[in-house]
Amino acid sequence: MHCQAPKNQARDLDTLDRRLIDSYQRGLPVCTRPFHTVAERLGTSEAEVIARLECLQARGVLSRVGPVFDHARAGASLLAAVAVPEAERDAFAELINAAPGVNHNYAREHDYNLWFVMTAPDEPELEARLETLESRLGLPILRLPMLEGFHIDLSFPIPWAELERT
Amino acid sequence: MSVSTCPSRPAPGGELPERDTRGLDAADRAIVLATQAGLPLVPDPWGAVGREVGLDGAEVLERMRAMQERGVIRRVAAVPNHYRLGYVANGMTVWDVDDAEVERLGREVAAIEGVSHCYRRPRHLPHWPYNLFAMLHGHSREEVERQAAVLRERLGEACRDHRILYSSRILKKTGLRLSRRAGQA
């Protein structure tokens, strides 16, 4: 794929790209030929829609085209944090990334400097994975399960004009 | 309003049940595994997924719809990477909010511009006093700080303390949600 991937790609997206993102970040039709339905609505061809989505995905503008699962209902998971010595952060991060069930890991600026999401098929397995990882790290893991989620709508209107100036 | 609680009830006996605690049977789980990193971008994505998991396309589509109705799938969508669209600053803001008010205020905070996720989580005293998390996204740290100031004002006297934890590095990021069991991969 020859698409360049600069940090801010908003200005490189044309009207059709933007309409695809604006219209379908909230949901694609779940029907027999979804991209055909999208194409009809946008007045273009199925092949064009597929080519655009492929390119947006290859450039990283779309992280994926597919189902968004409800974390709480699609398995057991929790947000976890560890305070590791800053100088050894990357070595600890590697241990965490290698552990089964870890699917995000961010370095953050705080005493608790590594933040990750631990997942498992069920709650007992989740706790077992955390305990195994704790003994591997030799450090306690802060367990921060979601107790309540307020309105979680990950889509928000993208202010294209404003993004072009940045 | 539906309230998700954690932990959910574990499966009895630790055996993999026919239909697990999420109401997913083996075929549903195979579909989740095959689609969680994204759908194949072809005219008939359900048929392509079906060939991978040994079902026909119509059944894959029917199961996707059923999982959506049950709330296991929130939506099937083109998921934008906001970082690539210029939202380069993300701040996880954490707040120590009066327990009596956190539910009402959590709902208010979630509606403020720039907030993508907002959760109530447990405190772990004395090290971790924060019970409300709100993820902020902006084009710069200055913008995130302006958003945080709006939250601070909204929370008022119910909030004792807060922090903004900026991410300095993404060390791992995948969309994978459902783990493969040993031997299944």
What does this structure look like?
The complex is a heterodimer of chains A (166) and B (185). By secondary structure, chain A is α+β, with helices and mostly antiparallel strands. Chain A folds into 2 domains: 14-67, Arc Repressor Mutant, subunit A (Orthogonal Bundle), CATH 1.10.10; 76-144, Alpha-Beta Plaits. Chain A is built from 6 helices and 6 strands; from the N terminus they run αααββαββαββα. In chain A, strands 3-4-2-5 form a 4-stranded antiparallel beta sheet. In chain A, a hairpin with a 5-residue loop joins strand 3 and strand 4 (114-120). The longest helix of chain A has 15 residues, at 123-137. Chain A starts with 14 loop residues before the first helix and ends with a helix. Chain B has 185 residues and is of the alpha+beta class. Chain B has 2 domains: 21-70; 82-166, Alpha-Beta Plaits (2-Layer Sandwich), CATH 3.30.70. Chain B is 31% helix and 24% strand. The model of chain B is unreliable at 1-17 and 175-185 (pLDDT under 50). The interface between A and B is large, with 90 and 84 residues.
Search tags:
heterodimer, A: 166 residues, alpha+beta, Arc Repressor Mutant, subunit A, elongated, B: 185 residues, Alpha-Beta Plaits, four-stranded antiparallel β-sheet, 5 helices, disordered C terminus
Offer a quick outline of the entry.
The complex is a heterodimer of chains A (166) and B (185). In chain A, 38% of the residues lie in helices and 20% in strands. Chain A is built from 6 helices and 6 strands, in the order αααββαββαββα.
What's the alpha carbon Rg of chain A, rounded to whole Å? 20 Å
Distance between the termini of chain B: 38 Å
How large is the share of residues in beta strands of chain B?
15-25%
**Structural category of chain B:** alpha+beta
Low-confidence stretches of chain B: 1-17, 175-185
End-to-end Cα distance of chain A: 26 Å
List the helices and strands and how they pair.
The complex is a heterodimer of chains A (166) and B (185).
Chain A: H1 15-24, H2 34-42, H3 46-58, E1 62-69, E2 76-82, H4 89-98, E3 102-108, E4 114-120, H5 123-137, E5 142-144, E6 148-149, H6 160-165
Antiparallel strand pairs in A: 2-4, 2-5, 3-4
Chain B: H1 26-35, H2 45-53, H3 57-70, E1 73-80, E2 89-97, H4 102-110, E3 115-120, E4 132-138, H5 141-155, E5 159-173
Antiparallel strand pairs in B: 2-4, 2-5, 3-4
Helix pairs in contact in B: 1-2, 2-3
